[in-house]
Queue: 2 jobs
Job 1
Amino acid sequence: MKHVWRLLASLMMVVLLLAACSNESTPRREPATLADWPTYTFAEMINGKTDAIVLTHVTDVKQVSGQDVSQVVQLAELSLQETLYGKPTGDTITLYQSVDKVKLGGTYLLFLQHRPEERMYVVADANSQSLVSEGKLTLSDELEIDVKVSGIAGTHTLAELRQLIEQQQKNAGPSAK
């Protein structure tokens, strides 16, 4: 019986040593580590870093393989509820995301860049996505949204956001969209 315990103890030591010595020499290719997120101020957004600022409702999501086969990206179908800035390409748009993905049924305020060659949109920067509601959509000027974009970060109503955008466009002059 002593031999069995010694053999079992020796085997466990070998397994522990192998587990401790194994090292993953290549870094994992997780989407969050692959993303290179710029951040822009509100003024930069209005002056060319974003093509549209929209309130959207997520009506469909599909997980697909990205350019790197090990990467899964999401294509989300968005129903536009209100356009605060810019001229989106239709009443519904496709959003391409590899990280911080929108959820089906959610309502979001999004600062978007258009990728016409792919016929889809991406969020403009790391702070361009604000969850408004995970459930039922209720639109009103009093709807409060926690905005993360530098220069206007904080809680704003839709009416306040419209005013901030209008003011920034006036300050930017004719070059703003």
Job 2
Amino acid sequence: MNVFWMHRDCRLQDNPALAAAASASAPLCILYIYDHAHLSSDTFHQSHLRFINQGLQCLNTRLNQQGGHVTFRVGHALHVLKQIHNTSPISAIHVNAIVPNHQERSTRAAVRQWVEQLAITWNESPIPGIVSTGRPSVGWAHHWLQDMHKPVPNLPEPLNFVSSAVLCPETLREPHQLSALKYRGERPEAQTGGEIKATSVLEDFLYQRGKDYSSALSSPVTAWHACSRLSPYLAWGHISLRTVFRALDKRQQQLREQKQSRNRSQPNDPWLKSMSAFAARLRWRSHFSQKLHDDPQMQTQNACRAYDGLRESEWREHMFQAWISGRTGFPMVDACMRALHQSGWINFRMRAMLVSFASYTLWLDWKRLAAPLARLFLDYEPGIHYPQLQMQSGTTGVNALRIYNATKQLLDHDPEGQFVRRYVLELHHVPKKYLAEPSSMALQAQVAADCRIGVDYPSPVVDAPDAYKTARLRFSEVRNRETTRKAVTAVYDKHGSRRGRQTISRNKRERKAQTDSTAEDSRAPKTRRTRRCSVCASEDHIKGLRCRAWMLKAHSPNKNCVKEKESLP
């Protein structure tokens, strides 16, 4: 018997491991295990299980139409597989590779060890877009594109399913039936799972909702409609990245043809720009997953170890509780957090603001934020979750400090207060001019708005401007150390932009060649004067290139540095 062991790949289309298992001559068992280690982990929530079950129900219904079914089991994965093997010997186990967290990695390692002992074939299909070993000779971005264009494996027809008499299929398990499920609670506005639903959401985005994607993705007011909303389907494997890319590629080609046939006097259609922006986000998604794949310790350790000890010893539980419950006194932060509790989703910019606010303004260690946020995010995916947490909290060493001003974010992205009033009901009657800073209302205005600060809605838990200055100062102190600069160089060499490495090296070689040529020929014409960055003395900032010092962030932000100013959020 061949076993296709599902995890984050509950779909029929573009499922390499399922296709490989189905193509073998032995009967096929499609297995899903409600793994106790997974159910009880600190990153798993009942909302995840609900979404997974919706996907499993969709898949099982489609398999029933072909005379098959999903085999459900509950328990520790290794014990379950041993029991199945004793009932009906397993000849091969087929899985799709994932970028796992520590719990998932440990579970798979234990199963692989058992498989090797019994000489059972272990077939792990690679992740499209992720370089599994070493670095590709063609460059990471080119390798990613090649993977997206590789042929999609097709399922043979008909499928040769294992008999129900041999292996009882059992049924879906609801939360109340799973005692190992540790974190429970409802997300009433959460999306519905399933491959059919995922395909519908994709089509709706590409042909209906996505027109204003590039201009509307930053605001929580417009992002709910304008963003793809595919993240939970991709995270739990109800649709593949390659399927999304190919549908997008087809749509872009259609838009280019329409542009060529359109009269030049007509205004530009925002569709093409938005689809291009979305394509970049798909590559970006794989880029971050590659980081955790290459360095699994990013889940629990700072990418740049020079920042160890910066926040860890200063945890303040009351600050964390105010943040996680949406009671900080900063309306945009509170609205975003409460939206997550309701739906499990918020747009990327607001996620970045939440982590930035917790990390810099409240000075909380990202490592203790990771699990609570994972439970809140319906689309929790380790490969994106941990690298992004480190990026937004400043511990990578190679990225600009992203210290978001929560008040400014409200004024920029929810100026009318639509989003804030929806989720922070205490502020429903607060006048617009006070909405960004309710604590600035006089007592008379508070009474009129039926919102008493400190009673109905909390006062700000921290002085944000003062916290901003303190955070900047403390990071500057660490950055200016020689040991930090060496550590940052190592991080950049391992995790820096794969698109930019060759460019930086080429620019450096070209500048060196110019210098050598000038030194050899004293009659060479003088170069015109060029403004230089006052910090690193590089002309690259003015020319629009990124010098190595800027890429490594080895110097502090400087008001005269053009690129530094552009990098601020």
